[in-house]
Amino acid sequence: MVLELPTSSPRPTALRSRGVRTLRELPPRRPQQPAPLDAVVRWVRTGDRYEVRVREHLVGYIDVVGAVFVVLAGARYDRAVEVLQTLDFDAAVRAISSAEG
How far is residue 33's CA from residue 37's CA, in Å, rounded to a whole number? Predict the structure, then answer.
C-alpha cells in the first residue's frame, strides 16, 4: 500500500496552530465527471465507490471515504487489494490503470 500522507504527523494542536487542515476537517468528495466516451480508462460511480475499467475490463475500484479516495486493484471487490489512499482522483485512476499493466 502506498500512502500520500506522512506516516508520522505533528500533534493536531500543532497542525491547527499552523493553519493546516486535518482530514476530518476536509469536506467529502463531490462526484467526479464521467470519463469521455472514447477514453481507454473509464469509471462509473456505484454508490460510494467507482468501478474502473481499462478497455472494458474491470480492473479495480475507488472507494470514497470522506475526503479520501481508497484505491483497490482487482476485478472482484471482495478480493481487491488496497494499493493507495489519496486526495487526488486522477492519481487514484492512474494507480489502478497502471496496475493493470
Answer: 12
Digit-coded pLDDT (tens) for 78-94: 999 999 999 999 999 99
- Predicted confidence (pLDDT) per residue in 9-52, tens digit: 444 444 444 545 565 666 666 778 878 888 899 999 988 899 99
- Half-sphere exposure at residue 58, Cβ-oriented, CA atoms within 13 angstroms: 12
| Mean pLDDT computed over every residue of the chain | 79
Non-local (6+) Cβ contacts of 87 within 8 A are 4, 26, 67, 68, 69
Pairwise CA distance, residues 19 & 46, whole Å: 35
Which amino acid belongs to residue 39?
A
Q: Please give the sequence-ordered ranges of beta strands (E in DSSP) within the chain, or none if there are none.
A: 2-3, 41-46, 49-54, 57-65, 68-73, 81-86
Amino acid code (one letter) for 30: R
Report CA dihedral (30, 35, 40, 44) to the nearest 10 degrees.
60
